[in-house]
Structures are given as C-alpha cells and as structure tokens.
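To the team - magnesium ion complex, inputs and output below.
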Amino acid sequence: AGSRAQEEQIGFYDRDADHALARQISMEAELREAVERGEFINFYQPKIDLKTGKLAGAEALVRWRHPQRGLIQPTEFVPVLERSGLVTQVGRNVMQRAMEDWRAWHDAGLKPPQIAVNVAPAQFRCDSLFDDIERALNTAEASLRPLSIEVTESGLVADQRRVVDILNRVRELDVPVAIDDFGTGYSSLAYLVTLPVDVLKIDRSFVVKMTQDANYMGMVQTIVQLAHTLELKVVAEGIETEEEAKFLKLLRCEQGQGYLYGRPLPAEEFARLLQH
Ligand code: C2E
Ligand code: MG
Ligand code: MG
Ligand code: MG
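Output:
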C-alpha cells in the first residue's frame, strides 16, 4: 500500500486530462497550506548588460519547497495560484522577500542590482498593489532603485484607464515596469504602445527560434526597433547560446537573461555570485 500511495503522489502533477480538475482542487488545498506554512522561496536569475557583459539586474522567480516532493517549478503551480486567487498573497510575499534579500546583500556590502518581481494580473487588479510596493521599497533603500516589476500583456489589457493610472503611480516610485513575455499575448500592439512602461521583455520562444528561422529573426529585430522608437529598453529572455547573444547584441538589445549567463539561484548562491 505504501508504494501505491507513493505512485499516486508521483503522478499527482502529471498532465492527465481525466483527473485535471480533481488534481487542481487538491493542489489548491495543498497550496493554501503551503502559503500558511511559508513553503515558497525566491530564486534569482541574473540579467546581463549585453554591451558590457556586466550584471545589470536579477529576476525573482518563486519556487515551492514541498515537504515531500522537493522543489516544484512555478509553471506547475503558478497557474493554480492564479485561478484560486492565492497568487495575490504569494506575489506580495515574493516582492517583500526580494527586498529583504536586497537589503541583506546591501548591508553586507554586496552592491545588489535591481530586482525584477513578476506581478500577476490578479495583483494588478488588487487595490493593495501600490501599498505593497511602497512597503517593499521601504524595506530596501528606495533611492537606490532596488525594484522593478514585470507584468504580462494579460495583466494589462482589462480596464485601460485603471491600468494606466496604476502604471503611472508605480513609475513615480522609480519602479520601472516591463511588459513580460512580449509577443505571446493577443493584445493589440496599438494598445500596448500607449502604455506607460519602460521595458519590453522578448519572450524566450522568439529567442529560441531566432537563429533557426529568418521569420523569427525578423520579428525580434522589429520588436527591438519598435521598442527603441518608443524609447523603451529591451530585455531578451532565454538566451542559451553565444550565437543568440551575438545577434541580440547586433540588434542593440540592452539586456539578456538566460542559462548562458546563469540559471535561477537560491538567495545564498546569488549572494556568492555578487561577491565575484
Ligand atoms: P517568466 O517571468 O517569463 O520568467 C522566465 C522563465 O524563463 C523562468 O522560468 C526562467 O527560469 C526561465 N528561463 C530563463 N532563462 C532560460 C533559458 O535560458 N532557458 C530556459 N529553458 N528557460 C529559461 P521559471 O522560473 O520556471 O518561471 C516560469 C514562469 O512562472 C515565469 O516566467 C513567470 O511567468 C512565473 N513566475 C515565476 N515566479 C513568479 C512570481 O513570483 N509571481 C508570478 N506571478 N509569476 C511567477
Ligand atoms: Mg518575468
Ligand atoms: Mg518573461
Ligand atoms: Mg517567458
């Protein structure tokens, strides 16, 4: 019976459509407990200035340290957090923790870079977002611009006036805003270009195909040009090869993030990276 139970546990996160709903419900219950027990941790992935090769920032990426199943990646549970509304609380904690880590590194003399935190669409609709950002900033050293946020297109499409209002207020705090996974959503370009944002993050799917397919190369080039016309900076995600990096540099893409430069690391390991 023991091994049977174990099998069921291992199969828990399989993508078997038959039991998808049941799994989501039980996962939701587990996630609720995980929030209470504080089982989420931040990893940090470096962002590199493509021109100088120096560290230019980091992205905070959440992981679930499950007591039995070990480290679980966000693609497995963030969608469930979003559907259940729990993402608001988890996202708030990720941001607060990011600024606590930033503060600790700063106090240790490590010169931490700006840390980007993903903000889910639900957080963006939540009234406390602005206060959460202010509180997190106060934990760190607001004048050193410790924080930026990343929002996907889907977080930006509903309620245009409200979105623009929030973006303006966030940017007044000197917190830059990036449109994450740019190019993968369904929103109109005409709308996106009117938004008060600072950065476009080109989705990994474009970067992967760029060096194989001239159409993708053309799209990346067009996105970079568009961004620069609008005086936005460009970050490319998912850079894995020198060839990809070379092309992005030629296109004058400002920053890059990807396994070529470093995988997401636990806070202690990221601190070690800052020491060197
Ligand atoms: P994202 O915001 O687009 O983050 C980038 C993802 O690409 C990360 O996956 C990162 O590990 C991965 N990545 C970066 N470079 C490479 C590369 O060279 N190769 C490959 N194969 N992958 C690369 P991760 O950490 O699994 O996160 C997945 C997604 O989960 C994130 O995509 C983001 O949408 C979401 N997420 C993560 N943390 C949070 C969070 O705190 N809040 C919210 N709302 N969403 C989060
Ligand atoms: Mg992101
Ligand atoms: Mg992204
Ligand atoms: Mg992405």
